Amino acid sequence: MDLACSVDVVDDVSLVSVRLSNPAPVARRARVRNRLDGPVLPPRRAGVPAAGWDDDGCEVVVPPDGRVALGYACLAVPSSTRSSRSSTSSPPQPSSPSSLSPSSAPSPPSRPAPVELAAVERADPTDAEQSSTAADALRSLGDHRPPRDALPESVNGSRDVAAGSADRPVTPAAEEAEPSPDSDAIPADAPPDPAALEPRLLDPTPPGPVEAWLDAVEARVDLGERLADASVREATAATAELGGLSGVESLPERTARDARALRALVERAVALAERAESLDVPVDALRGLA
Amino acid sequence: MILAVAGGKGGVGKTTVAYNLAAALDRRTTGRRRAIVVDADLGMADLPGGRGPDLHDVLCDRAPPAEAIRGGPVRVLSCGRSLAGARAADVTALSTVLRSVDRRASAVVVDCPAGMRADAGVPLAVADACLVVASPRPFALADAVRTRALARELGAGLVGVALNRVVDRAPVDDVADALGAPATAVPADPRVGRSVATRRPVVDDAPESTAARAFADLAAAAVAARER
């Protein structure tokens, strides 16, 4: 099995390209292991790593007389940025095309390759199929989740679409010289419209301001989770949404505060719900008195 | 045992069948452990909810599975009802959650969503076996075949088919031949139709009815498959 690889370094992230070629007349399974000093960020499908990838590298079957190309990112920079090749077959092969990283020094001495062939074995076509995992289902069937744009509140909670308020975004008060009865300035503070109350009585979701707060908390936690397991691109986007590194630095404290507030809310809400459920308003008696 | 109740089309009665099947499984077991129905329709909850954490919370790691299980004539782990919750829920965590619930239960009956996206596929990938619910009308057989194919691809063997809301004779033998598993006709009994909303499974409410016997047969088929 021949392995050729090249590394491009962009913003302290190594983008490693690997080409495997199998000169044998039988299919062979190769284990490619990352040797850079950082975690492997594999290609992902529908939010999960592509099949065959794990934290160390990947396992791939190369067909007889065939080639496979693969690539991954790694949050580490190789000690040398010059491309290199290695081979497990005895005679040296003619060098395969390779790319030099833009930041490589002229003619540096040869350094260890960013990947290595950890194992090569014959790929048995009668290998028992592994049982399907949840990740397999996700990869092959696709994401089912509602798109982010469909969520009722934006991250900064500027839109209030709770039942009973106008289905229009809050506009700055300065845009309207004279507020009209239909003005949608701060709908959350407006007295509830009696006509709109009817569906609200049947709707168990919390009212607008509470929903807005919960969604803001959820957005912060969501960003934190995205940062926790992010590729470079995802981390950059999430950091930008938080307003830069200072936003990232303050995020743990904010989410800890959110957690405390939510726990206090749960206790209060449960107690209130029990009181509400055990209410026994003597409607008939009061009706008789009226 | 984790048993997925699936059926490609919406509205065939998967939730009702799952709920009543769990009650029928309970009738067969002695001991304290009971069956638990998990509403895995992440985008559109089917089973009645209540106070306390739900499956969205569990899949976002906000609550452990045990806190989301509620008692009643049938033990239920219901799903959340918000779009944000559906967005945030990690469907791959469902496999850990279902296995955790399975350790507390005599059986886990997973009410799967309609369709063929990951939310339908993940429960099938995790489940040990699958029961397909289909309409008894002729054109619905193709949906049942597709669902069985998806289940097979994801490693869930078919233990039975429920032809739901049967009014006249149902093609039970033809369906069993086509799908390679026992087929049972569940009659269009109004007590079945309201069993979920009123929390009265038909095996408890009308144990001598044809519907109750049908669910008992489905439960027997599931148990027999597990013991093979």
Tell me about this structure.
The complex is a heterodimer of chains A (290) and B (228). Chain A is of the alpha+beta class. Chain A is built from six helices and ten strands, in the order E-E-E-E-E-E-E-E-E-E-H-H-H-H-H-H. Chain A has helices at 134-141, 194-202, 208-228, 232-241, 245-277, 283-289, and strands at residues 2-10, 13-22, 28-34, 40-41, 44-45, 48-49, 57-62, 66-74, 84-87, 115-122. In chain A, the strands form three sheets. Chain A has a five-stranded antiparallel beta sheet with strand order 4-8-2-1-9, with no helix packed on it. In chain A, strand 5 and strand 6 form a beta hairpin. In chain A, helix 3 packs antiparallel against helix 4 (232-241) and helix 3 (208-228) crosses helix 5. Chain A is elongated. With 228 residues, chain B is of the alpha/beta class. Chain B has helices spanning 14-28, 55-59, 65-68, 83-88, 94-104, 118-126, 141-153, 172-179, 190-193, 195-198, 202-205, 210-227, and strands spanning 2-6, 35-39, 69-70, 75-77, 107-111, 129-134, 157-166, 183-187. Chain B has an eight-stranded mixed beta sheet with strand order 3-4-2-5-1-6-7-8, sandwiched between helices. In chain B, a hairpin with a 4-residue loop joins strand 3 and strand 4 (75-77). In chain B, helix 1 (14-28) crosses helix 12 (210-227) and helix 5 packs across helix 6. The chains are: A alpha+beta (290), B alpha/beta (228). The interface between A and B is medium-sized, with 29 and 31 residues.
Short overview:
The complex is a heterodimer of chains A (290) and B (228). Chain A is α+β, with helices and mostly antiparallel strands. In chain A, 30% of the residues lie in helices and 20% in strands.
